[in-house]
Amino acid sequence: MNSQVRQATRQRLNRARGISVCLLLLLGVGCASQKVAPVPPKPEKPMPARVAAAQEVITRLQTTMMEIMKSGPELGYSGREALIMPIALESYDFTAMASLSYGQGWSKLSVEQQAAWIEIYTKFHVASAAKSRSEYRGQVYQILGYQEVPDGHVLIETQLNYPGRLVDFYTNYLLRLDGGDWKIIDFFAPPSVSVVAMRRAEYRNVLEKSGYQGLVSDMEGKMKRWNEK
């Protein structure tokens, strides 16, 4: 009888020790009897070729702009403008951006007026970039991601990091395939604000007061002042 009691006691003690060890392991690395093999990370989804092609447009644009900014003061305004024009024509669909920015009155313009407007819009975009990208301050461009949006368009998300600044700048570029080439048709800076929509609202105010020729004269006047500074 005594031997049976002793045997039962030893069994209970062994079970208690086992539970204690398991609890200690759970607090550390887990109970050996419940150990589960780690789940391998899911492989990243490969970027679609069409997205990679659109992203390359943005990478090339940003790399070129960075190089121009590094020589900005030496180039001067007109020098920067001359270097920005080729990469801008390669990267942007200015015909689409100019017509969308002009607004509802676009279809009422003559063919000659439409052509002149596209030209002045393109020059103004480049001139504005030459004015604002005047020098390099250590800023770094970064591609953050992408979205495939309706109608076959692609949105490329980017960030411009300024060293020592608390706030960085985010710009999203909307591109579409045009004759085999990806072109920017709008950009959002910040990401909630369409530059095309913003300019359309700005131009509408001038058009209502001064008409087509007044808007063209206003833009030409700004570019002339920028060039004189």
Question: What does this protein structure show overall?
Answer:
This protein has 229 residues and is an alpha+beta fold. It folds into 2 domains: 2-34; 50-228, Nuclear Transport Factor 2, Chain: A. Helix content is 58%, strand content 15%. The chain contains 6 helices and 4 strands; from the N terminus they run αααααββββα. A 4-stranded antiparallel sheet has the order 1-2-3-4. Helix 2 packs antiparallel against helix 3, helix 3 (72-91) packs antiparallel against helix 5 (111-132) and helix 4 (94-102) crosses helix 5 (111-132). The radius of gyration is 31 Å and the shape is globular. Mean pLDDT is 84; it is low at 8-35.
Brief digest:
This protein is α+β, with helices and mostly antiparallel strands and 229 residues long.
Mean pLDDT: 84
Question: How would you describe the shape?
Answer: globular
In total, the number of strands is 4
- Kindly report the name of the CATH homologous superfamily of the largest domain: Tgt2/MlaC
Could you describe the largest sheet, including whether it forms a barrel? 4 strands, antiparallel
**Whole-Å distance between the termini?**
109 Å
How many DSSP H or I helices? 6
Q: Give the structural class.
A: alpha+beta
What is the name of the CATH class of the largest domain? Alpha Beta
Strand numbers in spatial order across the main sheet:
1-2-3-4
Give unreliable regions as ranges.
Answer: 8-35
What fraction strand? 15-25%
- Secondary-structure element order, N to C: HHHHHEEEEH
What does the radius of gyration come to?
Answer: 31 Å
How many structural domains in the coordinates? 2
Helix content range? 55-70%
CATH topology annotation of the largest domain: Nuclear Transport Factor 2, Chain: A
